[in-house]
Each structure stands twice: as C-alpha cells, then as structure tokens.
C-alpha cells in the first residue's frame, strides 16, 4: 500500500478539508453549495502483488544462466539453468505464500458484516461496501469498521469505553464522548432523521488529529462496557488512521549479508578474469594454423569469414557459462532456509518462556538472527524493561507531613503494614482541609475507570465491606495512586452521567461534576481536571512531574515538598506533584470558550490546545507529592553484568528524571560503587557553556583512556577508573543542534569520544524521537558498531526501528513495541541467553556456511579452469552434466544446512557461564578478509591436488586390468569423486557437536553420491541423447590405482587444514579454543537446543575458562533442581566438595557420581 498511503496523507494539490454529509443527505436548497466528493470504499489492501521479488545478488547470479540460453554453450541450458531455476522457484514460492496469506487476511477483514442505517432501519452489509457518510451501529465487543465520528450511545451521558490494543497496544479502557448536539439520538429513527454536515481535515497519519480523541473512534479499536453506539464514517479503507499508520519497516540487512555480497563481487571478478584469460589464451594457442585448423576439423567458409571480435566475445561468454558455477547461487537459498528454520530454536526455548504471563519469545523477522551475535551497543528503556512496570504506592507528602498507607500492589494488600503511619506530627485544622483536598485531588484527577460489576447497584460499598473496586487505566501509575489513596480513606467509586463519585472517610458519597479533562501528554508532562462540587465550588486539580508543576505554583510549602521529592527520586521512586486552584464561574466560562475554540480548529489544533492548557494551568497552589515504586525486574542486574563482561556497552534511555533513573542504574549494576559519574545536564550547561563542559569532560576521561580500553574493561577491577555519563534531553538537543557557523560535527564527535570512554551511559528526560537520534548517532559513528534497542512501550518504537536489531518486551505498556520489533521476549533477563547463546551460535553457523559455500565452489570449478590448458581451451567440460547440476543441489547441500542448524562449538551452559567468549566473534571476526582469503586459498590448493594428483596418478597407469585405456570422462569422474569426499569430510572435521542427524546426513550424502553414480553409469537411460557415462564409474572403481588415488588425494587435501588448526590452537588459541581444549565441553555439558537447561550462572564466577569451576558448577545444577521442585532452599555446597563426601543418590550432579553413572 505504499503509494496509495502517501497520496492519502494529503498532497499539496489536495483540498485542505473535506465536507461529509451525514447519511448522504444533501443540505436544504439555499443553505450551502452541495460539493459531491469521491472517497475510496472501505476495502483494506495489504498484499504486495509482485511476481518475483529477487534481491540484487540473486539477479546478478542469473546472468550466466540467461547467457547460456543465447549462445552456443559448452554445457546444456538445463545444466546451467536448473540451479538458478531452483533458486527462483523457492524464492517465488516463499513470497507467493506470504502474499496469499495477506490476501486471505484482507478478504476476511473486508467481508466482515457491518450494521448500516438506511431509511430508519438496520441493514447488514459487508465491510468493504461501507462509504464515507454512512451511519453505522456498532455493538459491544465489536471492532469499529472504519474511522467514525461518535454520534450517540445507549448511555445517557453519551459516553462509551474503547480499547485500542490493535492500534497502540494499550489494553486499558479509554472513555470517548459523543458530539454534544447528537448524544440524545438513541434510536435508529432519530438518527435517520439527522440532517448534518461534518467538516474535517483530509486523512492524516496522526492518530488523534481530527476533532480530538474524544469524538473519534478509530478503525481497529473495540467497543467495551457499552451496549451499542452510532457513528458516521469519515475515513474509510486505505484512508483510515490504521491504514495510514501501517509502518513499512525499512529493510534491515545484517553484517553477514553485506559480507556475502562483497565476497560475491570478488568471485564475480574472478569469474570474469578466468573467462578473459581463457579467451586470450585460446586465440594465442590457435595462432598456429595446425592448431586452429587441424586436418580432421577444417572450418567452413562462413566460419572463416566471421568477425574476429564477435567470435572472441562469443568465446568469452561461453567461458563465462562454463565457469559460472563459481558463483554460489544455491547459497542464498540455503541461507534463507537456515535463517527461517533456525529462528524456531528461539521460539522453542523453554528457558525464555515466562510462566507468569504465559508468553514465549517471538521472531518477527529471521533475517537478523546472526546479528544477535554481533551486538556492540545495547540501548534499553527503563520503565517496563529494566523495571517491572508494576507500580506500588509507597507514600505521599502533604504540606511536609508524610503518610505511608498499607503496602498495596496490584489490588492486593501485603500483610507487612497496617493503618496509616503518620511519620510527622499531626497537621493543624487548616492542614486537615488541605490533606482532604489532596486526597480528593488524587481521587478525581485521573482517567481511571471502574470495572463494571452487575451485582452492585447504587454507590459502591467500602473496600473493607467485601466488594472492592477493580480499577482499569492506561497508566499503571494512576491505578497505584487511586488504590493507594483508597487505603488512606478515600475511595473512587465511578463516573456516571458525567459525575465522579468518591467515598470519603466518613463513608459518605461525594459527587463532583466532571467539567473538563486536560489530557496528559509527554511534552507538558501533566494532566488536569476541572470539577464542580455539590456546593457549587469549581476546582482545577493538576498532577504531573515536579519539573512541570513547581514553575506554575504561587503558593504552598514548596521547599519541604521539593526536598521530599528529591529524596524519593534518589531512592529510585517515581514522583508526582499535586496542585490545585479554585475557579470562579467567570473564569470557568473563559476557559470553556478557550478550549472550545482550540478543539474545533482545523489548522494548528495541537499548538492551540497546548497554548490553551498553558494559560489555564497556572497560578496553582501546591498540595503535596506522591511516591510510587517501580521494582527492578528479576535478574536484570545479572543480565547487565553478563552483557558488560561480553564487551557490550549498555545505555539506558528513559523519560524519567535524573535522580530516579540514576538510582535504578545503581540497582541494576549499570553504575557501580567505584563509578565516577560525569554529568552533561541542562543545569551544568547553564553554569558553564556547552563548549567548556564538553572539553572538561573530555580531558577527564581521556586522561585515563590509555588504561581503560574496550578489551580490558570488565567492570570488576577496582584499579581502573570507571566512568559513567549522565545526559538529559535538553543537553542532547544542544549537542545535536547545528551551530551558527554550520559546524555541528565538532560537538558530536567530542560527545562520542566521551561516550566511548565511559563504561555506561544514562540518558534521562528523553523524548521518543531523541531516543532514535541517540541510536542513529552511535550507529553512524566512524566505527559503525552494531546496535540493539530494547523497549516495551509505544514510545520505544522509533528507537527499535532505528537500531540494527530491535527487541520488544511483551510488557504492560501494550504490544506496539513487540509488534514493531524484530524479536520479542517476555522479560529483560531473556536478553542474556538470546545474545550470548543463540546469537553466538547463529553467527558461528552462518559464517561457516558462507565461507564453506565459496570454498566448495572454488574446489568445484578451478579444476575445470586447469583442464582448459589440456584441451586447447575448447570449452570442453571436465565433469558430466549430471554432476555439474547436482553438485550444489544434492551432493553437498544437506550436510552444510544441517551443520548450520545444529552446530554447537561449545556447550550452552559454558556460553552462559563465560560471557567473555562473546568477544571472540565480535566485529564480524569469522568473515574478515583474512579468513575469507584463507578459505579461498584452501579451495585453490585442494583443487590443484584433485586435478594434478589425478593427472600424475594416471599418467603411467591409464590401463585397466583388461588392457582398456581410461578416457577423459573417467578422469573427470575421479576428480569429482575426490572432491565430493574432500569437501564433505572437511565439514565433518569442522563439526564439534555430533548427533545422529549429522551422521545420517554426512555419511548419507556420500552414500547417495556413490549409489547415484552407479545407477547413472550402470543403466542406459533412453531419454538421454548421449551415453558417455555408461559404465565409467564402475570401471573406474574396478581399478586399484583409482582407489589408491581417492584415499591418497583426500588425505593430502585435508592435511594442511588439520595442521593449521593444530598449530594455531597450540600457539595462538582463542578463548573459545582454550575452553574446548580444557575439556569444558564434555558430552554431558553439551545440551542440545532442543532440551534447554536452566541457567547455571554463578554470581561469583569470574574465571575466563569455565573448567576452573567444574566442581562448583555441578552442585549448583542440583541445587537449582531442588529449588525448582520446591523441596528445600539450601545454599549450594562448598566449591571444595569432592565425590567422596557426597553419595550419588543425594548429589547426582557431583562429578564422582557422573563417573559412576557413566561406568
């Protein structure tokens, strides 16, 4: 839907607004001009109608296959075209299937039944037939079929409740209000008699732009707690907000894929150079007349007169076709299959399943699996990602007096507190009034809804009376505050007929008329309500962040409350301030007019509303502040510690205030006790210039940069000075803003230098767009590091889409982050296994796959190149057509596919225990040029061994036992046989993790080759126009020298690689190889991904090689098993436990008992 969406979003030549005639009724004559406008129907189209979607590399690879159909080819078109046809078919089937699923989903959506009102009656039609201006009736639990203006509902107050989970991920109920003029229309006849026009903007992607959020019901939202509503369609089909917000994710490409394409270009150059060399040498060789026209092959007259350049070009293309197999066409299909099938290992991982929520990990794209093994920077949100987003009301401070209620969490009272704890002395009489006003403010200033309970009539009973209220809100903070004040004696009951009811301490019901709601937004960082009491007093209650409330306060005990707020923030609590002002009727009238003018404005509505709110929310009286705790997620600190040991830098990006965020960073071990904090905040920039602050910080960190490098930093040594940087959103804006002389780059580079020298960075007071800016800044810095962003809310989507890898946490802030991410996990702690285990394995596997494919294709085609020197550059093929076709498709494809799915070079538990192993694969280590050149040279060496080995072996022994001489097909078959065995056994030597599947596929592939060759050469196939391979393979195997050649050449080919591995492991071992040598990855340690184990991480573990903790890790496994079974909670046995002191029955994890069991 790309281009359609862009047009719908309002191009310059469009009319700014649209006029909609409700029920398609034209205005009475003379009232106004009737402007008929054409709008799209309600059909949704998300499918992509493409025949073939091939990537650029695949298109390049098609060239040789296409050429072979045009020119006189040395190989048949079938031979050259079949592998390419296979690639194209697989890709087309995959994309066609995905498009069919999209068509199917579109049809199901477009054929949903919808209730229209026509001539005063309900008519049922398909959703796609809906038009702009139609009046629709929607019943409870139904989804709105298009964007509607809310006309009326069955409720007397003209409200309805809506959930927008499919739009913004919020599962909470939101209240919408009908248009005042039409809320009294309750029947089909009333609605049908309505004559009205609606003037609104053209479709905009902004979810809340036209007419304000309270009147607009968006497609995809669901009606809740309301029997039925009537609405008029204003935007339909691809012009609905939901369709305009279909975010086409930019195509993310992994570092491995980029390396593959670069290597492919190198091999394309090799292919062209081979063809050129052979073409030139052919004409050099044919310069002698007796070679160009031997007596047995004279040219015709037309051949002699043919243009020399045309002949040379044709020969060049023929050589291109002959050598085109060096381009690994099938590699792209194998990589696609490996990524797709490999992604299931994440979704099947039981360790990453969260029993509390019943959620497991999700893979939204499998294209970035290997990128999980290359991450250098992690950008994480705080609330809901590092913390639980499970708010607990801790205390409130009113005029300097602190109140601590019952400890309450998610509607359940915890048994460790009772009654109201008055920390300070009791307030005076006037203080008592302020106290009650504060509690009333918390009961009234919110958007909380009370879940309907059909069994209760009239006002709610006191919570202690048996019927407790169940609160629903889009913000967990609000629910925590309303529940907390409930424990302090004031209970919010309900909103009915625009009246809010609360139960005070004396069990009396108080009713307040709700006049206006000034909704919360992230720029103002506050919300307000205007209410009218039963006595006729009008109040404005305002609550919000301290930074947005204190500047608007003219009265109240600001200093005492500010001190308490700062103390709570340092302790990691989330704080809100509450203020109020009393309004006289004349003031309220002015406010109403101001708000109404802003709400109906078609141009600049947001700015006008913001200006109106700014004028209204001023001259407030400060009442007090609240503190809510958001607890740290389980194992968040362990996860961050492990990621830092792995060499990954962790940044926290949050909208919270600095003190709260810093306290959380200390709690999750991002900052340590010896971390020296550097501040780059607005407060400091006000005291000094930005230039001075940056240079001062730069001098501080760069003084120690010699001793603090990326590889030596572990976060555990007390000798090294450890720096942590704190920056806020305003300071970041100054750094990113271009200077007057146009040189913004200087500040950015200086800022990046400081960040690189810090072990951790905290960015607070960040807007969603600034989070994405930070990610982009690091992503495009000179090192081009691989970035990962993780968050759980809609405000994290921008950074998730910006980072190389985006991970959504399936949290309480909805599923928008999870839907827009590449991967989704239930908890932050699962990131550890996802990167250190799954990411590590994915990268190891796919890098071997890529290098191996290039290697085996060099082995395959270089003998063909050498053969041209012995056949007069006549483009004669060395191998039979069947071998050319099936080499990459059948003989060598399955072993590498299975290797790339199953390989575990070290055990899962070893990778979890020793995060430093992650550094061995950093910076695309296994696909660097040095490694690529080694594999290519190894392929060239093996190819020369195959060719010249067979050549010299048969030079004097080309006679079989019956005196028959071997021909060129026997020679080619021998070379091919040695090659198939060598490349397959090379993979077997590289395999560390053997299963029955590996054995079956590797030895099965060799067996299949032998059986195929026996059948191919043992039967006269009637469909072939040649029988050149008849009896060739069998005859070759009947010769003793052939057997000797196969064994000897395979051994010689594999020998250099074996020697290289032995020498490198002895002289320059990597950390991974040391682990393998020390015997850490024993068979009982190697747990398959099909049967994942619980984490065996030890908090005190610091050794580089996990073998050092052999005796410790075993008892820990047992202890965990005991804890899981809830038998006991004993501490793990001492590290010195020997197998003599524990019996095998009580300690099955002890090494001694393992030996016993193995025996």
Major sheet description:
13 strands, mixed
Structural class given helices, strands, pairing?
alpha+beta
Q: What average pLDDT do the residues reach? A: 76
Low-confidence stretches: 1-14, 50-72, 207-211, 407-427, 454-467, 707-719, 1080-1159
Instruction: Tell me the strand percentage band.
Output: 15-25%
Distance between the termini: 65 Å
Quaternary state of the chains: single chain
**Fraction in helix:** 40-55%
The helix count comes to: 39
Radius of gyration, taken over Cα atoms and rounded to an integer in Å: 37 Å
User: Count of DSSP E strands?
Assistant: 35
General form? elongated
Description:
Its cofactor is Mg(2+). It is found in: Cell membrane; Early endosome; Endoplasmic reticulum membrane; Membrane. The active site is at residue 381. The chain is α+β, with helices and mostly antiparallel strands and 1159 residues long. Helices cover 43% and strands 17% of the residues. The protein is built from 39 helices and 35 strands. The strands form 6 sheets. Strands 14, 15, 16, 17, 18, 21, 22, 23, 24, 25, 26, 27 and 28 form a 13-stranded mixed beta sheet that branches. Strands 12-35-34-33-13-29-32-31-30 form a 9-stranded mixed beta sheet, sandwiched between helices. Strands 3-2-4-11-5-9 form a 6-stranded antiparallel beta sheet. The longest helix is centred in the C-terminal third of the chain and has 38 residues, at 830-867.
């Amino acid at each position: 839907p790309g281009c359609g969406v862009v047009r719908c979003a309002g191009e310059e030549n469009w009319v700014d607004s649209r006029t909609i005639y409700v029920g398609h009724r034209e205005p009475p004559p003379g009232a106004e001009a009737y402007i008929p406008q054409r709008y799209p129907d309600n059909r949704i189209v998300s499918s992509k109608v493409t025949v073939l979607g091939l990537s650029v590399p695949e298109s390049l690879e098609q060239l040789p296959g296409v050429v072979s159909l045009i020119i006189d080819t040395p190989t048949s078109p079938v031979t050259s075209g079949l592998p390419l046809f296979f690639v194209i078919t697989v890709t087309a089937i995959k994309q066609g299937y995905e498009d069919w699923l999209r068509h199917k989903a579109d049809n199901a959506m477009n054929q949903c039944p919808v209730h229209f009102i026509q001539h005063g009656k309900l008519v049922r039609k398909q959703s796609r037939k809906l038009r702009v201006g139609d009046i629709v009736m929607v019943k409870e639990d139904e989804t709105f079929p298009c964007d509607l203006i809310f006309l009326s509902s069955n409720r007397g107050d003209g409200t309805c409740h809506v959930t927008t989970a499919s739009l913004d991920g919020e599962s909470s109920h939101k209240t919408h209000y009908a248009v005042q003029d039409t809320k009294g229309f309750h029947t089909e006849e009333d609605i049908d008699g309505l004559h009205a026009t609606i003037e609104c903007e053209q479709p905009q992607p902004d979810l809340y732009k036209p007419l304000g959020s309270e009147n607009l019901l968006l497609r995809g939202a669901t009606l809740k707690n309301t029997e039925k509503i009537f609405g008029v369609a204003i935007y339909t089909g691809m012009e609905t907000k939901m369709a305009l917000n279909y975010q086409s994710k930019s195509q993310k490409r992994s570092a491995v894929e980029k390396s593959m394409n670069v290597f492919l270009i190198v091999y394309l150059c090799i292919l062209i150079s081979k063809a050129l060399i052979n073409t030139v040498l052919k004409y050099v060789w044919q310069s002698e007349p007796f070679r160009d026209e031997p007596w047995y092959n004279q040219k015709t007259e037309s051949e002699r007169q043919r243009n020399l350049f045309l002949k040379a070009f044709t020969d060049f293309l023929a050589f291109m076709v002959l050598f085109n197999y060096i381009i690994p066409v099938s590699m792209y299909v194998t990589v696609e299959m490996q990524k797709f099938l490999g992604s299931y290992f994440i979704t099947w991982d039981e360790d990453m399943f969260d029993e509390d929520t019943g959620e497991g990990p999700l893979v939204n794209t499998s294209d970035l699996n290997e990128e999980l093994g290359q991450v250098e920077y992690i950008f994480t949100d705080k609330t809901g990602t590092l913390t639980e987003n499970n708010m607990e009301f801790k205390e409130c401070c009113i005029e300097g007096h602190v109140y601590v209620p019952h400890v309450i969490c998610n509607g359940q009272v915890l048994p460790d507190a009772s009654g109201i704890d008055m920390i300070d002395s009791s307030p005076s009489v006037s203080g008592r009034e302020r106290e009650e006003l504060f509690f009333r403010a918390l009961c009234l200033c919110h958007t909380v809804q009370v879940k309907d309970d059909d069994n209760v009539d009239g006002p709610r009973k006191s919570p202690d009376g048996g019927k407790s209220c169940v609160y629903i809100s889009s913000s967990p903070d609000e629910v925590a505050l309303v529940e907390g004040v409930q424990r302090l004696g004031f209970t919010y009951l309900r909103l009915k007929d625009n009246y809010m009811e609360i139960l005070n301490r004396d069990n009396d019901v108080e009713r307040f008329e709700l006049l206006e709601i000034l909704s919360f937004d992230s720029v103002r960082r506050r919300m307000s309500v205007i209410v009218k009491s039963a006595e006729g007093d009008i109040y404005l209650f305002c609550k919000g962040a301290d930074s947005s409330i204190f500047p608007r306060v003219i009265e109240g005990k600001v200093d005492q409350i500010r001190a308490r707020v700062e103390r709570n923030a340092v302790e990691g609590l989330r704080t809100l301030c509450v203020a109020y002002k009393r309004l006289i009727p004349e003031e309220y009238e002015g406010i109403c007019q101001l708000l109404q003018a802003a709400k109906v404005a078609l141009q600049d509505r947001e700015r006008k509303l913001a200006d109106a709110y700014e004028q209204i929310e001023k001259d407030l009286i400060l009442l007090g502040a609240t503190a809510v705790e958001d607890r740290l997620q389980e194992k968040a600190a362990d996860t961050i510690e492990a990621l830092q040991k792995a060499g990954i830098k962790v940044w926290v990006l949050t909208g919270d205030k600095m003190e709260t965020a810093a306290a959380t960073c200390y709690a999750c071990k991002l900052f340590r006790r010896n971390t020296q904090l550097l501040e780059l905040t607005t407060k400091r920039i006000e005291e000094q210039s930005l230039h001075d602050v940056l240079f001062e910080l730069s001098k501080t960190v760069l003084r120690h940069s010699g001793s603090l490098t990326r590889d030596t930093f572990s976060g555990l040594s007390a000798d090294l000075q450890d720096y942590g940087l704190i920056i806020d959103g305003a300071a970041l804006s100054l750094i990113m803003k271009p200077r007057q002389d146009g040189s913004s780059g200087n500040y950015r580079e200086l800022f990046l230098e400081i960040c690189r020298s810090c072990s951790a960075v905290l960015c607070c007071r960040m807007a969603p767009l600034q989070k994405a800016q930070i990610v982009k800044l690091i992503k495009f810095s000179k090192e081009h590091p691989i970035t990962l962003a993780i968050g759980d809310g809609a405000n994290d989507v921008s950074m998730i889409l910006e980072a190389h890898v985006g991970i959504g946490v399936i949290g309480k802030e909805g599923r928008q982050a999870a839907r827009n991410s590449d991967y989704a996990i239930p908890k932050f702690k699962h990131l550890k296994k996802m990167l250190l285990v799954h990411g590590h394995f994915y990268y190891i596997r796919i890098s071997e796959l890529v290098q191996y494919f290039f290697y085996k294709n060099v082995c395959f085609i270089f003998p063909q190149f050498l053969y041209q020197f012995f056949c007069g550059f006549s483009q004669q093929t060395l191998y039979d057509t069947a071998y050319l076709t099936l080499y990459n498709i059948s003989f060598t494809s399955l072993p590498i596919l299975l290797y790339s799915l199953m390989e575990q070079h070290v055990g899962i538990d070893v990778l979890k225990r020793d995060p430093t192993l992650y550094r061995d694969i950093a910076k695309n280590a296994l696909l660097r040029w040095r490694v690529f050149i080694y594999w290519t040279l190894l392929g060239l060496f093996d190819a020369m061994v195959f060719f010249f080995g067979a050549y010299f072996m048969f030079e004097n022994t080309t006679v079989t036992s019956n005196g028959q001489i071997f021909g060129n097909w026997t020679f080619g078959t021998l070379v091919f046989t040695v090659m198939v065995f060598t490349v397959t056994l090379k993979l077997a030597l590289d395999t560390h993790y053997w299963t029955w599947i590996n054995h079956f596929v590797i030895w099965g592939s060799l067996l299949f080759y032998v059986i195929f060759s026996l059948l191919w050469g043992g039967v006269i196939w009637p469909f072939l126009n040649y029988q050149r391979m008849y009896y060739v393979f069998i005859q070759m195997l009947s010769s003793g020298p052939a057997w000797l050649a196969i064994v000897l050449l395979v051994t010689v080919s594999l020998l250099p690689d074996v020697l290289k591995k032995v020498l490198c492991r002895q002289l320059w071992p990597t950390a991974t190889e040391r682990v393998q040598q020390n015997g850490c990855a024993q068979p009982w340690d190697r747990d398959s991904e099909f049967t994942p184990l619980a984490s065996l991480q030890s908090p005190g573990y610091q050794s580089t090689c996990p073998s050092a903790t052999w005796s410790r890790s075993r008892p820990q496994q047992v202890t965990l098993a005991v804890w899981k079974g809830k038998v006991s909670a004993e501490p793990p046995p001492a590290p010195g436990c020997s197998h003599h002191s524990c019996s095998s029955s009580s300690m099955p994890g002890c090494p001694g008992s393992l030996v016993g069991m193995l025996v």
